[in-house]
Amino acid sequence: MRDQEPAPGRPERRLSTKETAELLGVKPETVYAYVSRGQLSSRRDPGGRGSTFDAEEVAALARRNRRESAGSPGSGGELSVRTRITLIEQDRYYFRGVDATELAARHSYEEVAEWLWTGRMRPGVTFTAPEAAVATARRAVNALPEHTAPTDRLRVAAIAAAAEDPLRFDLSEEAVLGTARVLIPTLVAALPQREFGHLAEGPLAHRLWGRLTGREADEASLRALDTALALLVDHDLAASTLAVRVAASARAHAYAAVSAGLGVIEGPLHGAASGLAHRMLVDVLDRGTAVPVIADELRAGRRIPGLGHRLYQGEDPRARALFALLEEIPRAEPALLAARDVVATTARHAPLHANVDLALAVLTVSCGMPATAGETIFAVARTAGWIAHALEEYGERPLRMRPSGHYVGPRPPQPLPD
């Protein structure tokens, strides 16, 4: 359809919902999502059989979507994605406009997840998984070698849960939210249970505790774990989240989108960073001081784990919130002192602040968890954020996350190789 100025005295051109969806490259239900967001106006068809839309307004939205999907001018080539989920600015971050650290301090992980998904708070909500999905996921996970890393187990559990769900290709908001509320507790239930740490009911953090440590749970430690999950639920377009949005842009179902995110977080610069900080703190505790540990890291040319963040000039607000809770746990004091020693020692040559990976490491070390526990906490927590971004991407033009390659190889035609 070409953009045309309406002729004088000629009625405006109206499009049906189907025509509008085809022009925008979205599903009909997404058209109504644009209406609810105030991006499109609709008018009831005189026959009462549906809504109609102004052709010029639709064409303008299509042009705007194309511009935004190509990135913002002057962005230095970085991809820019419109989102209503998380804002990071001035050393703070917000979920749908609300301070994320305050949300995490006052609400459970499940409640924060619901806020992220829907913009509505559901006090007391808990996520539970059907027995069939859990049984399928556990069988798949139990078949893995004993040395399998937790993230591998989570990926396998997500694939198994998808296979158990024949309706997984329904990408409507209601269906995807239903998947999210089942998938997250299924991932937790599929992880091996550690001796003596079992808590079968209650908030998700209580059930996750027994998968991370064999120690008996106490209220302060459970609160710290629940808050850590809520703090980590989303952090804008981190590498794993971008992978999820690419998958969702191709209309992969929610399980597949989450699997894409799980595949990215194993990198040492992303989800696995807390494991490196955990091992460093254990080394500091064993040696009694951070000086030789930091010296070894610097001599090897490695960056000090748990310090600095490209989005924050000061201290990571997630670390600040989690450290405050850890200070209320007596058994966390040695690990907290070791973390402070690391920050102070490193400050002699680089004034870097603690990030959330160092705070997570204090939690995992002080609660008798393995070095991989921080990665597990991160993956479970971030699954809710991935779902939020997948939902948002399902409402956009499909396959828009397709940057063009800048070819720098030999110019054709080249001779055929021998």
Principal-axis shape equals globular
Radius of gyration: 24 Å
**Can you give the mean pLDDT?**
90
Would you report the number of β strands? 6
Strand order of the largest sheet: 1-3-2
Share of helical residues: 40-55%
What key attributes describe this structure?
418 residues, mainly alpha, 3-stranded antiparallel β-sheet, 6 strands, 5% strand, globular
Descriptive report:
The strands form two sheets. The protein has a three-stranded antiparallel beta sheet with strand order 1-3-2. Helix 7 (150-164) runs antiparallel to helix 12 (254-264) and helix 15 (317-326) packs parallel to helix 17. It is built from 18 helices and six strands. The model is unreliable at 1-7 and 71-77 (pLDDT under 50). With 418 residues, the chain is mostly helical. 52% of the residues lie in helices and 5% in strands. The termini are far apart. It has helices at 17-24, 28-36, 55-69, 100-106, 109-118, 131-142, 150-164, 173-190, 204-212, 219-231, 239-249, 254-264, 273-287, 291-299, 317-326, 333-346, 356-366, 373-394; strands at residues 14-16, 42-44, 51-54, 86-89, 92-95, 98-99.
